[in-house]
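Dear H.,

Thanks for agreeing to be a second pair of eyes. The structure we're designing against is below in token form, covering all 111 positions.
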């Protein structure tokens, strides 16, 4: 693999500066809820399942226990791999198969 160490275009390093993460707790039930609202300034986010029930997560407004992007078991933390994928700025939906769980959702924004 070749790397251009003398690129002809400039890099706007200001695009990659973010503020500190803010954290909020979200209650999740077997009815679709929003774990994280859409945010055009989002830099990174992470979700920690502090409850006792697995939580199904999906990008967008629709998630079910059979249609989801990933499951976060109780006691586990998940964060988007922004090094290998573009930033996702839309809403994140969450649901449990049954019962209630709690999520700690952290998000940092571009400054």
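And this is the sequence the design step returned. I haven't edited it by hand at all.
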């Amino acid at each position: 693999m070749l790397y251009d160490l003398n690129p002809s275009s400039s890099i706007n390093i200001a695009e990659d500066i973010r503020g500190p993460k803010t954290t909020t707790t979200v209650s999740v039930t077997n009815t679709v809820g929003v774990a994280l609202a859409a945010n055009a300034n989002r830099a990174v986010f992470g979700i920690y399942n502090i409850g006792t029930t697995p939580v199904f997560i999906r990008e967008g407004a629709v998630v079910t226990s059979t249609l989801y992007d990933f499951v976060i078991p109780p006691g586990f933390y998940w964060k988007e791999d922004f090094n290998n994928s573009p930033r996702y700025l839309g809403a994140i939906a969450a649901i449990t198969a049954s019962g209630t769980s709690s999520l700690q959702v952290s998000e940092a924004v571009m400054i």
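Two observations from my side: The beta strands are 22-28, 33-36, 42-49, 55-59, 70-72, 77-79, 92-95, 101-109. DSSP finds no helices and eight strands in the chain.

Warmly,
E.
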